[in-house]
Structures are given as C-alpha cells and as structure tokens.
Inverse folding.
C-alpha cells in the first residue's frame, strides 16, 4: 500500500461503545460464563445464562476453544473510572481499571502503538527499505545510540518523516516505546490504521485487540509486580463483601506503592500538532503516566 494512501482516505467514525456497567456470572459445574449489560444486573445475568448454555452446547459438540466463535467473545470486564466526551457529547475515551489493577486509557480518537524493542532489529531493516532510508538509503545512522531502544526511536523518527501529515509522540516505556499518532482520523479496526501500527513494529497481539474492540489502549499506571506487589487476587466485580474489602485493601496498597514510579517518559515529538480533543486526551495521558517526573524509574 502506498504510504500516502493511509492518511488520504476519509473514515467515518462509529460511536465508541461504553464499557458495560453490570456483570454477572452463571456457572454449571466447572463451566462458567460472564454476562454483561449497560442497563441492569438482570440483563447481565440473562446474557451470562445464554452464553453458558451456548458454551456447554459447543463443548458437548466437540468444538475446541478457538472454534467456539461468539461463545468466547466478551468486552473487557473492567470497572469504568472516568469517561471523556467530545464537544458534541459523544463518548471519545474511557479510563478503566484492568484485570491486574492498572488504570488504562481506551479511545478510538488516537492511534496508540506499543513497540517492543525485541522486534526492533528486523523491523528497522524492513521499515528503512519501505521508507527509502531517511538518512540516505542503507547508510548506517550517524547517531551514537545503537542500543535496542536507540534503534526503536530511529524507526519512530523514520515513520514520522514518512508521514508528514500526522503528529507523532514517542514515549519510552519499561520495555520499549509507546507511540501516539494524531491527525489520522482512522478507526483502530480499519485496514489503514492497522497498516500504520504495523509500520511502527507494534506488538501483534496488541494490534489484534485494537481490531477486535476498535479501540487503542494505553496503560496509565505501573504494573504492580514492577512495584513490589502481586496482582490482585480479587476479580472485578466483587461477588461478596469479603472480596470487595480485599480488593479495596489491595488498591490502597497499590496506590501507595506506585507513587515512586512513572509509566513512561516523553522521548520525542514530531510532525503536526494535535487538535483540541487529541490534545485533551494527550494531556490526561501525560499527567497520569507522570512523564515530567523523569527522576522516577519506569514501571
């Protein structure tokens, strides 16, 4: 695909779906299924019972897990902490708490790439060939940093140069880089968006999730095990008062432990500035991830 084709096509956004508020679990023996609803707990239980019945039927039919289709599909089971609306009152982003307790930003208004430095060497060769070599074809970079992260940042810079109509922000993370792309006006599930994410060397599991949920995600707070904590034992939503109390204790410990860590730090800005909504989402991201506290270790 020609590089310019990625940003020239006009994409009409569908309305971003809120995360379900209500979740209920149905179980028969060792088999269980979760159901969800934005309306009521009874609706969630009805969905759970239907999914359980379908799962049992699929199992008895001899279908493997990866061939059960919609029986295994579910939206992220995460507690909504905050919703961000655009100027027309349409949902633009959600901050939720994921399964291991970290705050996560989910949105369809930004493209967010997760670049693992383990993928940098093969990606750097293919991307420089694709982009024509920002520094004179196949010549070696005159930059002094040839570490995996140094190579990753050069790939991101090459990407930004090849897409001058986009805005590109690179953030160093514990394991590589996070890249926020603005100005694309693409749904995350679109082939054009997937092409951009893949040009950055994005983790393939992450790309699959972007397509599946039509949402890009960015973790805002540290992973607990990088701060000396285990992941929470209690899943959300809590089904007993004891579980709720245990979850509250863990959250208090987590919030105390993460004060000494940042999630990422800004490594570079390239291209065009973001629009007003994109800038609002970036400001939320940057504040929550503590990018200005450069003395803190990344987690």
């Amino acid at each position: 695909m020609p590089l310019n084709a990625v940003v020239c096509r006009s994409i009409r956004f569908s309305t971003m779906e809120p995360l379900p508020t209500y979740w209920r679990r149905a179980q028969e023996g060792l088999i269980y299924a979760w159901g969800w609803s934005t309306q009521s707990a009874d609706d969630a239980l009805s969905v759970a019972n239907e999914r359980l019945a379908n799962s049992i039927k699929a199992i008895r039919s001899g279908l493997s897990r990866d061939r059960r289709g919609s029986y295994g599909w579910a939206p992220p089971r995460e507690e909504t902490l905050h919703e961000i609306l655009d100027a027309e009152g349409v949902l633009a982003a959600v901050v939720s708490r994921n399964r291991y307790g970290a705050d996560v930003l989910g949105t369809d208004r930004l493209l967010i790439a997760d670049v693992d430095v383990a993928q940098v060497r093969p990606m750097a060769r293919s991307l420089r060939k694709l982009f024509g070599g920002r520094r004179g074809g196949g010549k070696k970079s005159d930059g002094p940093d040839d570490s995996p992260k140094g190579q990753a940042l050069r790939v991101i810079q090459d990407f930004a140069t090849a897409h001058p109509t986009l805005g590109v922000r690179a953030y160093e993370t514990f394991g590589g880089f996070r890249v926020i792309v603005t100005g694309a006006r693409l749904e995350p599930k679109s082939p054009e968006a997937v092409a951009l994410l893949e040009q950055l060397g994005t983790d393939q599991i992450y790309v699959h999730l972007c397509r599946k949920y039509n949402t890009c995600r960015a973790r805002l707070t540290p992973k607990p095990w990088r701060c000396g904590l285990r992941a929470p034992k209690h899943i959300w939503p809590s089904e007993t008062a004891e579980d709720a109390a245990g979850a509250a204790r863990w959250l208090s410990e987590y919030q105390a432990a993460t004060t000494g860590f940042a999630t990422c730090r800004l490594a570079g800005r390239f291209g065009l500035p973001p629009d007003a909504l994109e800038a609002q989402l970036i400001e939320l991201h940057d504040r929550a991830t503590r990018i200005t506290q450069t003395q803190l270790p990344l987690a």
Summary: The chain has a mean pLDDT of 87.
